[in-house]
Every structure is written in structure tokens, then in C-alpha cells.
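USER:
Before I trust my own judgement here, I would like a peer's view. Write it directly below this note and I will take it from there.

ASSISTANT:
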Amino acid sequence: MLDTFKTISLSHKTAPLQVRELIALNEDEAKRLMLRLRDFFGLTDLLVISTCNRTEVYYAFDQDLNADIARLLLIEKGLTDTDNYLPYFQFFSSHDEAVRHLFEVCVGLHSQVVGDMQIPNQVKQSYQWSADLDMAGPFLHRLMHTIFFTNKRVAQETPFRDGAASVSYAAVELIDELIGENQNPNILVIGLGEIGTDVCKNLEARSGGTRNQTNITLCNRTQAKAEALASQYGFRVADFADLTDEIRRAHVIISSVQRDEPLITPALLQDMNVLTFKYFIDLSVPRSVDAAVEQIPGMLVYNIDHIRNRADEALNQRLAAIPKVEAIITQAVAEFGDWSKEMVVSPTINKLKNALEQIRRDEIARHLKHLTPDESEKVDKITKGIMQKIIKLPVLQLKAACKRGEAETLIDVLNDLFDLEKHSVEDPKHLY
């Protein structure tokens, strides 16, 4: 498995949204692609990640299949003119580069919003798909668990995940500050362009993916879009003609409507009696909530500048943490590299252990008839201890040789000395 890991990547850095939408995979499509790749190429360690910002395929194989996999992915999505789409892909044919890229993607270094907190969960979901299809071998299992541990270190040891670095996420975070994290306010989202759609995604993440969230209502001039998003996240839909009633019902109103004049004005709200507070979060430019609304008792308005200042502060904090994050990744990649190199010598260690164990058993068998049960048990225990001490030094030397890139020579010597080729590889749990 050494030096065989590769990947293809199509992301917001290489492709516009309209292309990413064409190539994005849902769970069924991702699993179907994985089965195709297994049947076509015999791949075993395989990971497919697909989010709104990226679609990537990671695999372990001796040959470089990057172009073939990209073409197969495109054909699976019904895009037969593959040559027109291949330039949007980035190919990583180097093992070390592919491993490093996966680490960086998983911690959020390559996210559209740096440090995106959703990406680790999305990658875990992709890893679960691999496990479901029995397409995660020892290499991928170890790699993913190393990455998850690294991600935890990044969260605990750096401010890389602190604050809300996007306008839409900052707006959702503000709700928790205004209402309280454990509260369930009625939230009205008006306008479902790019920002409004992103607000919906973050509201869904805020709730932990809970379905049937009827406290969140979507209102859009094009109702079909509202209905599609509501179906995806389990939200409620309101008719745009009922906007005034929906504002009266809501505790928090998030507006990202694009128009020349404010949509929400004092005149629109004049008949409303507010017993506590009603919060308006205006993400529109020009503003869709008239500033004069705040003159109405109980009405509080937060505009795009307020939200953007919060996001910019968090983003700058995350950017400043990148060198520390990269240092943590470098250490983790190096440690994983040492382990993956040791995979090369594990069959030899197993064979050596089995060869010596066979010698031990043969010699004990010759003398068992002269020993009592207690004596046999003591001899077995003593000889096992001797075997453990004998094998310890060759194992350490093989591991050290791996790090120096000299393992093949030592493997050949051990094979010749003990005629290891005639021994099978067994009992790996006792190796390390």
C-alpha cells in the first residue's frame, strides 16, 4: 500500500457553481460510483467526498487512474462530453500530496469559508459510505482515524474553529446570542438567493440535522425554490403574500432580498404589538429592512455591516491560526507516513514470528511426554517469553529501516536466513 494513494478533486477553487452542481453526488450516486470503480478497477481502499463545494475521489492503487476515474464520474452524471469537463479537475498522483490534501480538506483549510465546521462531519459521512460497502481497508481506516484525531487537535489547540467566519453563519450565531442556544424561536427567512440558501444550511446545522423544524419558515417570491429547500431541510413554507402575518408570527426575521427599496418598513409593521422583542437581521445590499423600523418599540435591527464585522473578526483570527494548523498537519502526516511505511514490513514480521513459533512448538512437542501438565505449562510460558525477546530486536530494526528507506535489504536477509517464503502471514494482532 506504500506510495499508492491518489485523488481527483473538483472544488470551488477549480470550477464554478454551475459545474459543481452538475457533478455533485448524493449518497446513492456516491455508492453507485464506488461500486463501479471496484468492479472496473478492483479498488479496495476508496473514499468519495461530495459537498456543495467539492467532489473528490480518493483511492489506493499501483497505477494512476485519475483521468479514468474522472471520466467515469462524468459519465455516471450523464456528462458524456468528458473532455470539456476534465480541465475543472485537479489530479494528485503523488501519494504524499494526496494524503496531505485529504488532511487539509478535512480540517477546513480548503473550504470556501476557512475552518468550516461542517466539513469534518461531511467527511465522516463519506467514510461511513466506504465502511458500508466494505471498501475501507487497514490503510484507509488508519488514515481516517489519524485525520479525525488531527481535526480534534486543531479544534482544541488553535482558534481555527472559533467564531463565525461567513456572513450567513454569523447571522445564525447571532440568533443564539440574542435568544439563547437552547431556545427554539420562530425564525422567518425571507429571500433564498445564495446568502439565504446558505442561511438555511447553517440553520439546519445549528439544529443538529433535526427534521420537521416547523419553527423555521421560508418565504420567497419564487415559491418552488422555497418548497425545494423546505423539503430538503424539513422547514415550513409560507406564501409571499402572507409576509406581514409571517413577520408577526416570527421572533427572528432574516432578510436577504435583493431590491432597490426596503421591503420591511414601519408602515408594514404599524399594526403589530410586540410584547417582548422582534429581531431583524438584514443581510441585503441595498438594505431590505428600513433603519426606521428600530424606532418601533420592541423592534431591533442588525444590518450587514454589523454581521460582516463579526465575520471579518473571526476570519482574521482563523487566518492567523493557519501556520499552527499546518504545523499540526505536518506532524500528523509524518507520523502516518511512518506507520504506512511499516505496513511494508508487517508481512515479513508475521512470517518471522510464525517461523520461530513453529520451531518452538516442534521442540516442545518432542519433550511433552516426559513432562507433567504443570511442567508443560511452565515450559510453554518460559519459551513464549524467550520468543518475544528474540523477535523484539528484528521488529525494531525493521521499523527503523523503514524510516531510512532501507527495509527491502533487511527483508531479503531475513527471508534468506529463515526461509520465510514457505510461511504464511498470520496473527497480525501480535505484531506491535
